[in-house]
Each structure stands twice: as C-alpha cells, then as structure tokens.
Amino acid sequence: MGPDVPLLNDYKQEFFLKRFPQTVLGGPRFKLGYCAPPYIYVNQIILFLTPWVLGGVGTLLYQLDIMKDYYTAALSGGLMLVTALILQLTNLHARQRTVTVERMQVPNTLTDEDEYEFSSCLGSETVKFIIPGKKYIVNTVFHSFLAGVMCGLGTWYLLPNRITLLYDNVGGTVMIFVFGWVTICIGEYSLIINTATETAAFQALDTYEITALMRPFYIFVFIAVDLAYRFAGNIPVLEQTNQILHILFLFLPFLWALGILPLLDALFLWGMEQVLEFVLGGSPMSSNIKLLVMFLISAGTAIASYFIPSTLGVVLFMTGFGFILSLNLSEIGFSFKHTMSSHLASSKSKTLSSGPRIQFGRREFIFYLTVLTFALIEASLLHHFAGFTAFSKESPQAIVSYFLIILLLIMWILREIQRVYLFGVFRNPFYPKDIRTVTVFMEKQRRLMKVGVVRRILLTLVSPFVMIAFISLDCSLQNLHSVSVCIGFTRIFRMVWQNTENAMLDTVVVSIVQMLVFNTDVWWNRSLDTGIRLLLVGVIRDRLLQFISKLQFALTVLLTSWTEKKQRRKSSTTLITLNVVFFPVVLAFIAVSAVLSSPLLPLFTLPIFLIGFPRPIRSWPGSVGVTASVCSDTVYYKQMVPSLAAALQSALAAGSLGLFLPGSHYLCRFQDRLIWILVIERGFTYCCVNIKGLELQETSCHTAEAHRVDDIFAMAFEREEHAKTLSLNHHFGNILTPCTALPVRLYSDAKNVLSGIIDSHENLKQLKDDFVKVLVWVLVQYFYNKSKTCEKLDKADKDTDESFPINKKAFNNTVERPRSVRDEDSFSVETIEDWTDDSDLFDLEPTGRMRERKEMGPAATAPRMHLSIPGSVEMQSRDGALQKTPLEDKLHRPVVLGLPALDKGKKQEVLRLPSLEFSCSYSELLSIPEEWRTAPIPASKLNEMRQRFPEEWYHFILSQLDFFHLEEKPASLLEDLTKDKALKDLYIHGVLSCCFGLFGLDSTVPAPSHVFRAYTGGIPWSVGLDWLTGKPELFQLALKAFRYTFKLMVDQASLGPVESFKELVNYLEEYENDWYIGLVSDIEWQQAILKEKPYLFSLGHDPNMGVYTGRVLTLQKLLVQVGKLNGDAVRGQWANLSWELLYATNDDEERYSIQAHPVLLRNLTVQAADPPLGYPVYSSEPLHVPLF
User: What element of type H or E holds 86?
Assistant: First the structure.
C-alpha cells in the first residue's frame, strides 16, 4: 500500500462526520445523513435547552429578590428532576407500545441503513430515537436524581450576582453565564436524554452505563470548588482557583470533545495508581483488585502513622510497614496457601506452571526477617541517638549523603556496562563482540556476570540501608502529628525498598540541594520537610523523564514523516510546516501530557499531536493475559515462556535491561518469533511482567518491520565491523534500543527441501524394504510394553481380589485383545450393497445395515478414514463438522474413481486363518490379535512375504527383550520365543496385512506422491486400506512405523546407510524416546512441544514450488536478543489505536495507521495491543519474576 492510502474510507468519513458533532453537543443528532422531519430537530433543540429554561426561572426569581439563592437552586433542581422522570417514563411507555412489533423481527432496509421511519411528532419511533432510555431501572431513577441536583447546583454556580462578585466585570459575567449554561445543558443532555459516544473511550462496551456520568462528574468537581469557597470564607488561594475554574468551565465541552478528560473508570484507576506511586511510595499493580486493596492498605498505613504518639514508634512503624508492603504479598499468600493445601491434601495433582512462581520457603522467610530486623534496629538506633542534629556539612546526615552519591555513581556505571550500548548511543567496549552461540556468549560474558552480582548485592542490601540511615537521621521526624511528615516519610520509607534506584536518585538530589542552600532562608528549607522535598523531587523526576521521552517520540514521528519515503504523504510538507510554526503549542501539549502522565496521541500516527486522556500504566481496562488470538503458533510461545522468564530473572537483577519500571516495554527476537514484554509491577526482589507472542505468519507489513528489527539486533550483536569500541548506534532514532541477549531453552526451526531424497528410486526402494523391519520392531515393542502393563495390573489386582472380586480372565482378555471390529461401520466390499440404486447420492443418512451400525452408539464409531462418495460433493454432516482431508493442497487429495466390480456368485480365494499352537507358553505375551489377521490376502502373497520377511532381524529384536517384569521365567525364554514358528507366522501375516493396506499387493516401488499421502494418512481408497482403517489401533501402529521409516530414509540419505542391526535399533529407540514424527497439524505435535520432546519432524508439501519439505524442531538453549522500546511511543500509538477503533470505528485492515513503519514499528505495536484491538497469538498471565 502507498503512503497516501486514505486515513478513513468514504463510509467511515461520513460516519465520523455524523458522530463528532453529536459528541461535541453531548448527544443531539443534528446530522443524520438522510432527510428527517423538522420536528426531529426541533424536539432535540427544545430538550437541549430545557435545563437552561428551568434554571433561568430560578435565576430570574433570585435576580428579582423574590427568592434566596439556595431556594432558587432547590426550585430549579426540583423542576429538572420532575422533567427527567417524565422523559424516562415517556420512553418506557413508547417501548411498551412497540414491544409486540419488535418481536416479529420484520426486516426493514431503512433500519439496516441506520434510517428510521417517523410517523408523528410524539410517535413511538420518534420518542425512542430521541430518548433511547436506560437499560436498568436503577439508572433511570439515579440519573434523573443527578440531573435535578446538577441543574440546581448549576443554577447556583452561574448566578449573575455571584459571578459579578468574582470578576467585577459585566461583559465577563454575561459570557460566563451564557456559555456556562451551554456546558450544563450538554452535561444534562448526555445524562438524561441520549449519551454521546466519547472520544476518550476506554472500554469497548459500556455495560453499566458509566459513560453517562462522565460529564456530570466534571461539572460537580467545578461546582464543589465554588461551594468550598462560599462556605470556607475569603481564602485568597481558593478565590483565585474559583476564578480560574469559572473560566475553564466554559471550555469543558472542548476538553470532552478532544478526549483529554477520561471516563470515570479510567480516571479512578489512573488516580489510584498516581497516588499509590507518588504519594504513598508504592507501585502500579498487575490487576485492578490488587490496585484497590494495596491503595486502601497504603493509605491506612499513612493515616495510622499520624496517631502514633512517639517519634521512635513512628520511625519503627514506617520502616516495618514500608518493607512489608514492598514485598510481593499476593505471591507470598499464594505460596502459603499452596503449602497449607499440600500438607492437607498431599495427593492433589500439580498444575503446570506457566512461569516461575515465587516460592516463599524457609530460606526466603529467614532472609526477609533478617533484613527487616536489621532495618528496624538501624532506624531506631540512629533516630534515637543522632536524629536531633540539623543538617550541616559536618552532620551525620551529610556524611551519609556523601556515601549515597558515591553509591549512586557506582550503581549507575555497573548498570550501563551490562548493556550493549552506553546511553543507547555508543557501543559498549566491555560487551562481548560477535555473539552467535550460547557457549561463546556465556564465556565472554562471565566477567559481566560477576559485575552483575556485585550490583545486585549493592542494590538489594547496601543501598536500602544507607538510605534508611539518611532518612532516620533527619530532624524533621521530631515533628509529631504532622500531615506532611506522615505522608512524606511513609512514602520514602517504603520507596527505599519498592523502587530502590529511583529512591536513591531522589535522595541524592535532595541532599545536594540541601548542601547548596542550607544556610539560606529560602522556601525550600523554611516550608518543606525532607519527606515532602523527596516527594516533589520524585514527581518532577518522573514528569521530566516523561517529557523527554514524549519529545523524542514526537520528533521521531515528525522527522520520519519526511525521511521515510513510504511514509511521505502529500500532506507531509504542510504538517511539518504547521508543527514548526506552532512549535510552542506542540511543546505545551507535550508538557501537559507529561504533567498528566497521559499518552501523547499522534492522530492516525501522523504528526498531528493531541493530549490523550490519562489511563492506567497497562493502557487497557481488562485483566492481563485473559484474552489472545489463540492459534496453532501459540504453543511455541507457551513452551518458551517459563525459560524466558527464568532468563529475565538474572538479566533484570544484573541491570542488563536498564532501569526497568512499571510501564517499561521490551521486544525479543528469535528466528520468526517476536516476544513483547511489559513490566506491570515492581517491588523488593521481584517484578511482575506480561509476555505476549506475535503472529508467525508474517504479512508484508509485519515482515518489513521484522526485517528492521533483525537489522538492529544484527548490527548490535553479530556484525564485527560495527562492534568497534565506542562505535555509534546507527538506529538511534528507532524506538527500539538493543540491550542484551538471553540464553533461553526453546525450539529452533529448520526447514529444508527434500528434493533428491524423496524422489530417488533407490531411496524409495529401500524405504519399502525398511518398512517391514521397522513395522516388526514397532509391533514387538508394542506388545512387549503391553505385557508389562498387564503384569502391573495383575499385581495390583491381587491386593483387591478379596474385597473386589472380578472376572480376571475377562479383564485380561479385554486388556490384551482389542475388541472385534467386524460390526463397525467400515466402508468395505461387504457394505457395497448398502448403497442401492434407490439411494440418494447426496443423502446425509445411509440406508440399510450402515444406518443400523451407525445407531449402535459410540462403541461402534472407531476413528477411520472419511472418504467421499464417487462423484459426490462434500457436504456438512449432521454435527456441523465439515469432513476435510488432512492434506495441504488439492494435488494430494485422494481421488476415488469408483468401487471395484464384484461378481456376487463368485467367491474370492482368501487366506483362511489356521489354528495356532505356540511351542512356547510365553509367546502369548507377544501374540497379535486374531482380528488383525483377517485381511483378505491371497495365500500366494503370504508365501511371497515369507521370503521377504527379515527373519534375522526378527530374531535379533526378540533377543533384545529382557522380560524383567516377569517374576518366574525360564532361562531359555528368548531362545524358545525365537524358535516358535507360530509366533513368527503371526508377525508375517500382520506385516503383510499392513503392507497390503499401505502399498497394495503389487511389488512396485512407491511414487513420491504416494509416500507423502501415506505419511499424512491420505492414501486413496482401496480394499486393503479400508480393512486397515477398520482396525484403528493397528492403523496407528502402521502409520507410526511408516513415519519412522521415512525419517530413517532421510537420515540415511544425509548420514549414510545403516550398517548393523544394533545401529538400526539405536535409530528406532531414539525416534521413540526423543522424537515426535508426525504432522504440524496433529494435536500430538502441540502436546510434544509442551512436553518438550527434544526433536520434532514433519513432512510437508509446497504447492507453489512443487517440492516436498522437511521441518525439524530442535530443543536447545539459544540466544534471544532483547531490546528496550520507548514506552511513550508505544502508549501513544496504543492511544491512537483505541481512539481510531473504539470511536472512529476505523477497522479497515489496510488503513494507514497499521501500515509498516520501520522506525516506529507501528504494525508490531498494533499487534501487541490487548484484544479486541490487537491480536497477539499468546498472552501470559502476570508472571512474577523473583529477583532474590
């Protein structure tokens, strides 16, 4: 797609132009897109102005001194309440009148096109169109009550006399009165008449009608300040705030329309996060419930510290709770609960963990208890004996601050040298060069790992205790019952553990400022204690870093709109010029966005910057990891996540990934896999992450950005010419900055073309001969292992015979012999008469005995081949499942040209089963069931098979059996089995039956296409195949043997022929134990990956190139490259995605904002968003990574 692809298609443009005016005005629909009667518009205008009219009545009575101001407010509010209830009852009446018509579900083309038929001014359709009504009766009453309260308080808020007292300007009073009532009318209309779709959409669905409360809430906030000013007296600060807010009140409709003010759910989640992090010293949480609980506990801790009567008690309380609340309490509780339940029910099955859980055992308990004890002792002793000295150059607190400065510099240096680029710009001379294998990488990084251990010790144990010493020595703690002390010091005593690196930076900045200004009587020293200073420095630090990050993102969007040719649109020159001319405005937008900690929204990802609404750091409302676009590729990510989380554990602790905070994003790359990591929570010795996997089926946009990611990582890690000392990062402007490489245990994927192997005549001839050997081995191993199982069951039954008597002989027969399948519904020669001339060729229900067999129930429905009737069309079965062939393309579908002609009067010469008498009594353990020897094979073919049967191989296999599971066995057991001719005849007949099913009775060499069909289980119909598929157990063993044989053929072509029986057995045992050989589409393929089989092999066919391909997955520890993303760039693009899909409903798959952008990684960022807006194929639950 070109760069000038439309931002919105024609239909969406028309839709947007209808929706946006409705959003601006709060709900009235004046632009419908079709011709509507005039009374539709008149009715909406009347309803829009009704609050103003009702408020105007009260205002007029007040201005004429007929009523007091609070009486006028009560009168206007009461009138609005009655009006709102009447309107809602009108809607209920209109819906009841039309309920019978709606039940008929008569299709109306006008309604399908979003048009309505209006019959009269007050008709049912008119009422329902203008007043949609509420879903819940509770909201009907509650919203009507709020409408009355808002109208009453709004009347009081906009009384002209009160406004004149504030500004002493008649013109200003008129402006505020008129446009202020417009704001209230907009809020009333959205609350009680029709709720407009908000541009600040956060949830995909408004289940509980919370959106209607958004505009009234902000109106109440402004009114609350005015009420506080009226009743609190003349406070200058409050008066100035009230004056500013009265002016800002007029611009509320623009703030709503631009989506700067969030909906209530996003507002409260964002507010709790901000207060918890910057006021209470905590961290954003991984779920909304955890956030609420932690917020309440942390706030309660700060409040409780206010009532402690002793300064020493306050210090101990803050130190102890600061440490405890910084721990991963939810996982500690989980571990404790799991331990208790395991003691109570030790036999409970263990569930597969998706990542490393924090095991809170005795070692961790002792460590945390020891750290807490030393922290309490240190804080109490220093505060008690040296906490009364004011800060000076020679004071103990100043001496500790010198240590803090040195420690911060050491920590910063140790963190930076762990990464491949210093400051993201210069190549790190200490980082290993040209790392391609895990062994070389681990060898070269051994020194850096030692540095990482030193940094971890300094970060976990040394730094917190030094900062506790600095805080405990502060004389501000002597001021009891001070709100500022309770808030400031509760925060910093917790932040020391919760976010050690940022706490150290804040403490160093405060100590340096104190050294510079401690002799000067300035506001910093006079009005603020150390706790509040640290709080202000922390907020400024965070907002300043956000401003720099957002500015970098804005410049990247602006510059790449011209430098990237594929992003250069016709409007690019105009947009760049406007950004340059209005650069102060753009800078102000970035600053406001940073202050609000909200995303900077590039509209359609163009250099048109808006302020997004504040939202939680996770960006999405739902629970983490609940939804994903699950597909067959999901299993590859699911397998690698536990190992990746373990690798992240050491990398995060060592500092290889830089400063990681909640909201940090990382991108990992390995072969065709892209892994997105989001840090969502952090505390003392742990962090919580969400890992997402992006699709493997690469589109053109996905491929373009993935190639750029590969180039960035290759330049950083693999190319020696770019690994020179202090060489520059050529991709510095990209939002991705390489950090390090992690050794992860995962599957490498190798695909190769089998031309020259599968089409070789010698190989195919050898394959047919080897199949007999492999099948003999598979059958012997199968019955040998089954005999082990039966022996174990027999031993278990001996203990239960007295209390549970059963027919052991019948049970053993059931175990050792598969049931007869003669009564199954198999498509064989015997069932041809079921299809008569009277049968409908396309009938879904067969006639005659086939229907009888089908009605026998589940016991008769063994898995078998589903073959089409000759000349028919594939149809859907009764269960709704479409019968499909397992093949990848039409070229290799089974072609059935008709059933063989049979003479009913003529009997075929079929081999009859002789009676068997084993010369060895133990031969029964390896005996083949009678049903597996019923194939209609001529007697002449059996004699031919006797000559082809590998007797020496058969004897060698039997000689390898040990029969250790048998308690009493003769010494000559293996010799007796070898000499048993009856047993050998059984295997000759069994092998011949399988060869008859897969290859037929002829001795020709199979074609490559036949080999492929046999491997995939899609051989064309034949009498032998029909018999074989009627024995599902035998068919699966034959298919397994054939796949082993094919893999053996590939290995022999690559590594050389097998020279001995022992070597062949080694091959087969390796296939059995270490390999899964099958198809990618098999469910067993996914199970083998999750069980971490060392190797997997699959045969495929490329219809485009016309070649056969082999795919090998190998489980091994390999390097996964990791880079850090610009978090504000990700949040900005996600904010645009949310606006574009939830508000503008621009879900066009070829829209501009989803096209490839190699610098912003736009397509990958969209994929990584939470569903339904994004489509990651895998998303983990919150993974708690221990950094202990």
Answer: helix 69-97
Pair (1016, 1156) in one structural domain: no
For residue 868, give the 3-state DSSP assignment. Answer: coil
Q: Quick one: 253 and 290 in the same domain? A: no
Is the pLDDT at 795 greater than 60, yes or no?
A: no
Last residue of one domain, picked from the residues 1052, 1072, 1092: 1072
Residues 1027 and 1163 in one domain: no
Tens-place pLDDT, residues 367-395 = 999 999 999 999 999 988 876 777 777 78
**907, part of any domain:** no
Cis peptide before 1172 (omega within 30 of 0): yes
Candidate from 536-540, 637-641, 988-992 with smallest mean pLDDT: 988-992
Kindly state whether residue 817 falls inside one of the protein's structural domains. no
Exposure string over 48-81, b if 16+ CB within 10 A, otherwise e: bebbbebbeebbebbeeeebebeebbbbbbebbb
Please tell me whether residue 1131 adopts helix, strand or coil conformation.
Answer: helix
Question: CA angle, 654 as apex, 651 and 657 as ends, to 5°?
Answer: 50
Contact 243, 166 (CB under 8 A): yes
Pick the last residue of a domain from 1054, 1072, 1090: 1072
Q: Are 231 and 363 within one domain?
A: no
Answer yes or no: is pLDDT of 102 > 90. Answer: no
Lowest mean pLDDT among 259-263, 607-611, 962-966, 1133-1137: 962-966
The H-assigned helical ranges of 311-395 are 311-325, 329-344, 362-386
Instruction: Write the DSSP assignment of 531-549 as a string of letters.
Output: HHHHHHHHHHHHHHHHHHH
Question: For the chain, what percent of residues have pLDDT higher than 90?
Answer: 52
User: Which of these, 1115, 894, 1165, lies nearest to 1013 by C-alpha position?
Assistant: 894
State how far the Cα of 998 lies from the Cα of 891, in Å rounded to an integer.
19
Six-digit token string for 339: 């331990």
Nearest residue to 625 via CA among 643, 637, 613: 637
Task: Establish if 801 belongs to a structural domain.
Answer: no
Handedness of CA 568, 573, 578, 581 (dihedral sign): positive
Residues contacting residue 227 through CB under 8 Å, at least 6 positions apart: 153
The per-type count for the chain, helices as H runs and strands as E runs, is 43, 13
For the chain, the domain total comes to 4
Q: What angle do CA 375, 273, 303 make, to 5 degrees?
A: 55
* Residue 681 CB-half CA count within 13 A: 27
Average pLDDT over residues 830-840: 39
> Residues 677, 682, 688, CA angle at the centre, nearest 5°?
40
Hey, what long-range contacts does 1062-1067 have (CB within 8 A, 24 or more apart)? 1064/773, 1064/953, 1065/777, 1065/956, 1065/957, 1065/960
Whether residues 188 and 49 share a domain: the answer is yes
d(CA 353, CA 745): 16
Torsion of the alpha carbons at 227, 230, 235 and 240, rounded to the nearest 10: 60
Residue range of the domain that includes 236:
10-98+112-261
* 283 plus 146 within the same structural domain: no
Q: List the one residue out of 126, 133, 140, 104 whose CA is nearest residue 42.
A: 126
Between the alpha carbon of residue 229 and those of residues 240, 708, 1033, the distances in Å are: 10, 58, 85
Domain match, 257 and 276 both: no
Same domain for 255 and 277? Answer: no
Candidates 411, 511, 412; CA nearest to 471 is 511
| Strand pairing report for 736-753 and 1107-1125 | antiparallel
DSSP 348: P
- The pLDDT value recorded for residue 268 is 96
User: What are the two backbone dihedrals, phi and then psi, of residue 687, each rounded to the nearest 5 degrees?
Assistant: -145, 160
Q: From CA 678, how far away is CA 657, in angstroms rounded? A: 12
What pLDDT, on the 0 to 100 scale, is given for residue 99? 59
Is 997 inside a domain boundary?
Answer: yes
d(CA 109, CA 760): 64
Q: In terms of Cα–Cα distance, which of 50, 63, 56 is closest to 130?
A: 50
